[in-house]
Amino acid sequence: MTDHVLHERRGAHLRLSLNRPERRNAITVAMYAALADAITAAQDNPDIRVITLEGEGVDFTGGNDLADFMKEMPQDGQTDIPVWRLLRALATNQLPLIAAVHGNAVGIGTTMLFHCDLVVAEEGTRFKMPFTELGLVPEAASSLILPRLAGRQLAAKYLLLGESFGVEEAERFGLVTHRAASGELAERLEAVVATLLSRPPEATRLTQRLLRGTSHDEVLERMDLENGHFSERLTSDEVRAAISAFFMSRQRA
């Protein structure tokens, strides 16, 4: 458990919020574990009907805490590290899952959204997946899901080039489902949650499962493929050089 992930029950609503605003909600290994445990435990709780993911402070998340992650690099054959437990929990989740995003949503801050049923984004939000910049490969089955949503060329723009994009573009290709005016994200999210909770519970649960269908098997298979490449990349000279350059640029900033 970590104080950097807030858990709050509001009746049938489980609110999970990244709570490390002083570091732009950069996600640590402990935070991955807390999120994975919370989402997994919710599956067996009949009193929980909807889960929301949010971020405290000015950003949804600046992505992975690279310094923390590099200290906890997975060993060969490891499949139970916290970040991958979270990704599997998202892929197999059977409760309506809503993300409310604002500011910056970097790396996993964007890829986790592919596993949400609904995404509410505040105007001005920027999405970015800078994996190749860091010598890495995509995660969270984004190499499978994003081309299906946006088409191969746009997926290449975001994954190969790592170009950022805004709310309008994200809504156009289907990542964002609801937009919120600046300063009105909480109210917009609350309205979406209230509408969802007003629907008959079993019909809502069954519809969510039907929408996901059997695709989670294919998604998990792609995650395993990506994770294998990701693990190999972590020990490469390219990654060491890219991450070193990243930290040097932050020191100069």
TrEMBL record:
Which InterPro entries does the UniProt record give?
A: ClpP/crotonase-like_dom_sf (IPR029045), ECH/Chromodomain_protein (IPR051053), Enoyl-CoA_hydra/iso (IPR001753)
Compartments (UniProt record): Peroxisome
Task: Enumerate the SUPFAM superfamilies for this protein.
Answer: ClpP/crotonase (SSF52096)
- Give the signal peptide, or none: none
Gene3D superfamilies, per the entry: 2-enoyl-CoA Hydratase, Chain A, domain 1
Question: Which Pfam families does UniProt cross-reference here?
Answer: ECH_1
What are the alphabetically sorted keywords of the record? Isomerase, Peroxisome
PANTHER family from the entry? Answer: ENOYL-COA DELTA ISOMERASE 2, PTHR43684
Provide the protein name.
Enoyl-CoA hydratase-related protein
